[in-house]
């Protein structure tokens, strides 16, 4: 039990949380909760615990809600970051119907969060930065005036710098864009290649809104002729041109000359794509591509070769005279000498396409050159606070959503492992049982009292022997209409782990079936089902090898439900 | 609520291991953590890691890793706070926190952990409550050096002056030897400020940020009450105005929960009954508006001849402190372009030292007097692709990799914000006999002082 300060406190809590009489009486429960909140001698751990379990409390009226928020107000000013963040989360969750209260709380927590971001402890700084990013998803302008606090310091560890760059990218607005871009520009020439590449991608992100300024900066960076910078800039240009077609002109002017400085696969692909799609505006495009074609034998990356094929064909459509010869050479090489099958296939495909005719080629290859609407789709829309309020002050923002999803998947798979056989048997029942009935049937195994063992394999001789040795424990008549479809019934029974030992053919009169089931304590249920020739009622006789009335009743109810469900299908 | 807690040395040797809930793994989890930590890809943060439905969260303190594991999704802030508080507690009880002290005091550490955490839940971290339960005495290593200064010697003074407590005076265990009354009653109060500055290449100030803390380390018996008086004219927030003249201003202040603030509004006096051990009494921040000029200005001048690859960097460092003050342990760190292997230097005074190491220039100046100017001329060859000599020497763009200069220094007896402690008075001591020694110190040091070239 967490230690909350003193014996009285623990008593109060135990009273409130465990005593069903208090829980049933709303007013008493509320009084106890209020007393708990008002306790003065809690240390910071006690306060954090109080705030944590108050998350489960649902205030009934608005007045009560604001009462609690007022009482907890002092927690928001605590010097302990755990208490402040816990109180913030509580406010966000309790006030989920009052967005203005939520915004107010987030404004009040700005100070402590910013202090944590500049803390000496790097780990605290990192956790605070992750939460700042979380808040920025909903309130992008929240920290815009404090952008200076997120400038990276030279000595910080890499992971903190990356987070800060992301934050800078997200809090850009008209007033601070100039300074933020200048700062990011400084990072692009950083000694660490990873960090400078991250900064360039961040500028690319900002470029979707402030295109001109960013393209100018990126063009300047190309002038430095550094490999790790040039490749990322070209990739950024490729993405930008797709989303913001208005910058295509500027990009095309910047491109000539960078092919000398790109050695890696991603950069080459980006460059080749740009030359292929926008080659008509770049005078030297065919000659650059010719360089690549001449060196294609020594090209190690198959992805680059694929991109080269497509780009050259596209360029051929707009500048045929210059490209014809090298296209021929490239196609010859790819088809005759290339060892990578994917490249060869593409070369063959293009060759055959050309044989069909130029119109066909145009129809297939002239895809749209940009799709600005994709930018709107990709930009994460402002998420309402309630979507992440329950993740605030937990490990979820620290990991990031993607990693957390992975982690919970791994954890989930482990926990659900043993239940798999049940659902596997259900998978075979195909389309015979309509959807809503499937769900009803599937619920049965979980009905508490009776757990029937799956995959019971009882031989017919054993069944007969046991059947004859037992007396009938229960008999019942169920109404029934129409004929029986044995397969349907058999499968439905199998879902609830009732095995069919023998069943008459469809249409037999009288129609009989013998079923068996065993529950987890080893008690056997043997059932005979008889459908009289008049087809109006079904007679069920159940024999049990141990005299347990409760389990017998549960079994009967399971059987009734199944048969009732099958009966409903026909009616 | 944590499952396990362990402490590793900086090389990954487990020093302490404690399992609280017995629900996950065994001792080999410590080795697993270290392997995962060292094998982590560069862009993933090591602060929280996940392995086999266990979360590892850790802090680095004094070269040690303090790690906690948990299987629940709990608040990272609470966990990190717990780990920091544990680090402080262990430091209080063992004297200081380090590999040596922990190895000598293993029994005490386990006893502390037993009392602080019960089945993974925090019971209490208050020194007062714990001292009733802890029986083991700490083992202190005898020889300590008077000149043993860590990067910033806290709770003690610099050794440049006489008649001050050596910096290791405060690193004795707090609660040792109850029976020994002859121990000196001492209290150390430090006003420590961290200065972060960013100056652009054209000399304009981009960012200045001061984070200040008033830290108290008390060896007095608990129950003593003290009052700390701060500068009366100090104002909180942009709109407040006290006294005459510009005054001393901070943007935000926060206090420890045990500080009584009745006299703070009127006379800027804090009243508290500190427990034994370390305590941060007050934290404050100030940005963008320093009352005093920045302590250092750097005037770099770079000449780079692309043709021959010769790079000449002339650095002039001017100290803008008042003439009576000085800066200690000043070091300038300047990353150089890749491939520079040697450099020649001319320094303006003999105590300075400059050397090239790990791709950067390190210029050490042990002591810089206020108002003085120091300079150094460095010449080196930058290897790179040859450029036709028609370009000639240019001062337009410095070569890539000539990174921002970062300065690290300490400013004793100086606070950048101007905040000072006027007095520290003990109003009540339970035993009342010896007159306790009070050491008050003001110190500023650089956190990240970056000047772009």
Would you spell out the secondary-structure blueprint of this structure?
The complex is a heterodimer of chains A (571) and B (453).
Chain A lengths: L6 H12 L1 H5 L1 H13 L5 H11 L7 H10 L9 H14 L4 H10 L1 H8 L4 H17 L19 H13 L6 H12 L4 H14 L4 H12 L4 H17 L4 H7 L10 H13 L7 H10 L7 H17 L1 H18 L3 H16 L1 H8 L6 H7 L6 H4 L7 H4 L1 H15 L4 H8 L7 H9 L16 H10 L4 E6 L6 H10 L3 E5 L7 E8 L5 E8 L5 E8 L4 H22 L1
Antiparallel strand pairs in A: 1-5, 2-3, 3-4, 4-5
Helix pairs in contact in A: 1-3, 4-6, 8-9, 9-10, 10-12, 11-12, 12-13, 12-14, 13-14, 14-16, 16-18, 17-19, 18-19, 18-20, 18-21, 19-20, 20-21, 29-30
Chain B lengths: L3 E5 L5 E6 L8 H11 L9 E4 L2 E8 L2 E7 L5 H19 L4 H6 L1 H11 E2 L2 E2 L4 H5 L54 E14 L5 E14 L6 E6 L3 E3 L11 E3 L1 E4 L8 H4 L1 E4 L4 E11 L8 E10 L4 E10 L6 E10 L7 E5 L5 E5 L2 E10 L3 E9 L11 E2 L10 E8 L8 E8 L8 E15 L2
Parallel strand pairs in B: 8-26, 11-12
Antiparallel strand pairs in B: 1-2, 1-5, 3-4, 4-5, 6-7, 8-9, 9-15, 10-14, 10-25, 13-15, 16-17, 16-23, 17-22, 18-21, 18-24, 19-22, 20-21, 24-26
Characterize the structure shown.
The complex is a heterodimer of chains A (571) and B (453). Chain A is α+β, with helices and mostly antiparallel strands and 571 residues long. Chain A contains 30 helices and five strands. A five-stranded antiparallel sheet of chain A has the order 1-5-4-3-2, with helices on both faces. The two termini of chain A are 57 Å apart. Chain B has 453 residues and is mainly beta. Helix content of chain B is 12%, strand content 41%. Chain B has six helices and 26 strands. Chain B: It comes from Daubentonia madagascariensis.
